Amino acid sequence: MHTSPINTKTYLHEALQDSRLREAVDKATQTALKKRADKVEQIPWWEELRHQAHQTKKETLDHLDRYLELFEESCGKNGIVVHWARDADEARTIILDLMREKNVRSVVKSKSLTTEELHLNHFLEENGIESLETDLGEYIVQLLDQIPSHLTAPALHLTRVDVGKIFHEKLGVPYTEDPDALLQIARARLREKFLTADMGISGVNFAMAREGTFCVVENEANGFLTVGLPRIHLAVMGIEKLIPDLASLPPFLKLLPVSATGQKATSYLHIIGGPRRETTGEGPEEVHLLLLDNGRSRILADGQLRETLSCIRCGACLNVCPIYQQVGGHAYGWVYMGPIGITLIPQYLGEAEGRYAPYVSSLCGACFEICPVRINIPHHLLKLRNRVVETKNSGWMERFAFRGFGWLTSHPLIYRIATWFPGKLQQLLPGERAFAAPGYGKERALGRFDGRGFRNRYKSWLKERPQKNSSAEKEAQS
Amino acid sequence: MTQAREAILARVRAALENPSHLPDAPADTAARIAAAMAATVPPDRRGLANQFKKEVETVSGECYLLTTASAAADKLTELLRIAPAAKLALDGDPLSREVAEKLKGTAHFDAAALTPEERRKRLPAVPAALVTADFGIADTGTLVLRYDAARSGWAHVLPETIYTLLPAGRLLPHLQALVDRPDAGESRNMVMITGPSRTADIEKILILGAHGPKRLVVMIIME
Predict the structure, then answer these.
(1) CATH number for A142
(2) Partners of residue B151 in chain A, C-beta under 8 Å
(3) A268 inside 8 A of chain B by CB
(4) What are A46-77's pLDDT values in tens digits?
(5) Residue A32, CB half-sphere, CA atoms under 13 Å: how many?
C-alpha cells in the first residue's frame, strides 16, 4: 500500500497552465450539458425517475449479500461462469489463468472503467497477450498510454489536431484532422481484430439479480462486436452494479444516456444472459463474469457513504463541476475523477493516499443537483474531509491554523487584541496597500482590513437598529 | 475461488450490520412515473408508428410507414435503386425472406443458412442487410432483437446499411412495457438498437457509422 498522497496539487497546477487542454475540456463539457438539458426538458417526470433509481440502488446495496447470492445462482442456471475477486491482484490472476487455460492470444475490449482499476491492458501486455481498446476514445488514449480523462468520453481532453498527430506518429498514417477520416482509420484497424480475437472483455452497466443477466450500453457497435464475435466473453463488474431485476432496469436506461451524452437511448443496449445461441451458432461459446470487490465492501460499511456506490458512471457531475471544467480528468490522478471521483479516491485508496481529493471541490452542490441517482456528493465530501482530519492526514499548516483559531475564539480578550492589532498594523503600510497573502494574492488582491472589527461594528449596528425599528413601527401603526 | 466468494460475502454481511442512512424516495414515486408515462402514450397503432418514426429520425435513422409486405418490397426496391447493393444479406427471418423474394433487381442470400465461419467472412463484405425486428419501442425509436430464434444477429451489425422490417403490431409504447411482458424473462439474450452506430469521441463531433452500420432504415408494415 502506498502512503504518499496522489500529487493532486501539482497535477492541478499543470492542468491550469495548459490552455489547449482547458479549451478542449470547456468546449466538450458545455456541449454535453446543453444536450442533456434539452433532453431532460422532454421528460417531465425526471425528478421522479431520480428518486426511483436512488430507491432501487438503496434496496440493492442495503441487502447486497442476498442479491449477490441470488445473482450467482441465476447466472449458474443460465450457463454463465461466475468468478469472485477480493482485490485487483486476485482479479488479474483469475483473468490470466482463464486466458492461459483457454489459450487466449488476443483480446478486444469495450469500455470498462472497472478494468482500469486493474490496469488490465498493461498487465496483459506484460504477459504476452494483445489487448486492444475498441471504443474510439479509449483507442486514442491507449495509443498515448494514458488513462481516460472522463467517465464516458475518454479522450475529451484532446482536440482533433492532437488526435491527428497521435495517429500520424503511432500508426504511421498521413496526418489528417478530419474526425471522420480518423474514425475510418481506427475502424479499419479494429474490424480485423474483432473478427480474429479469441476473447472479448466488457464491463457491466447493470446486472439483474433475479434473471441472472447483465447489460452493456454503448454507441459505437464496438460493444456489439466485442460481446458477439470472439469465442469467449469475459465481463468484469464491481459488486455494486447489481439491481434486483429486469423490471427495475428501465428508469436507469432513461437516466443514464440522457445524463451521459444527452441521448434518449444509446445506440446499442445488450442484455446478456448466457453463451452461444444454439439456433444460429453466433455469440460466444462461454460467458465468464468476474465479480470484483476491491474496496467496495469497505465503502459499504458506512451507512451514509455507501450511497457513493450507487454511481452509474454517467459523468454528468464532471461536466457540471466548476473545477473539472477547468482542469479535466487527469488532474485527479486516478481512475475515477470529478466530484464522484473525489469521494471514491479516499475511500478506495485510504485517507493517506487520497488526502487531497475531498478538497478538490467548491461544495457548490451542482453535482448533487445533476446526479441521476441523487448521490449527495457535497455532503459526503464534508464527511470525507472530516475523516482526513481525524486520521491525522491533514497538512500541519491547516492543523496549526485551526487549532490556533479554536484557541483564540475561546479566549475573548486575546481574540479582541489579535483582531484589533492587524488593522492598526496595516496603517503602517503606505497608501491603500494591503498585507501580502501568499498563494491567494498571486492572482487576486486581498482587501484592506476595515480596522473597526466585527464586534465594534455589531455594537454600533445594535445601537442604530431600535431607532429604525421603532420609526418603522410607528409608520405601520399610523 | 470459493475462498474469495466466502470472504467477499462475509465482508459484505459485516458491512451491512451498520444501519443504512440513505434517504427513502417519496412513497408515490412509482405511481407518479406510471401516470406521467401513461399520459404520453399515443392512443392507437398509427400514433405509435408515427412516434417511432419521429424518434428514429431524430437519431439519424430513416423510417417509412408502409401498408403491406409487398409495399415494403416496392419501397426497398426503390431505395436499392438509389443506393445499389450488389448483394443483400438476410437474417433468416420468414418476413425478411418474404419481402426479399418480391424484390426486383437485387440478389440476396440467407445468412442464417451459412455456417458461422462463412457468415463471419461474408457479412462484413456485403453492403446491406435486410432484417426483421421482434419489437419496436415507440418513445425512443428503438428496435429490439431477441436472440432465441434461428436468425443472424450479426446481420444487424456487420454490413454498412441495415434495412429493418417491423410489423406495426410489434410496437410497444416504452421499454417498461417490454420488460413487464410475461415472456420478458424468456429471452436471456437481447439487443436493442436505436439508430445507426455513432461516436462523438473527438471534440464531441457526431459521426455516424463507428464500428457498425452507417445507415439504418426502418420499414413499419401497418397491416
Answers:
(1) 3.40.50.10420
(2) 279-280
(3) yes
(4) 999 999 999 999 999 999 999 999 999 999 99
(5) 31
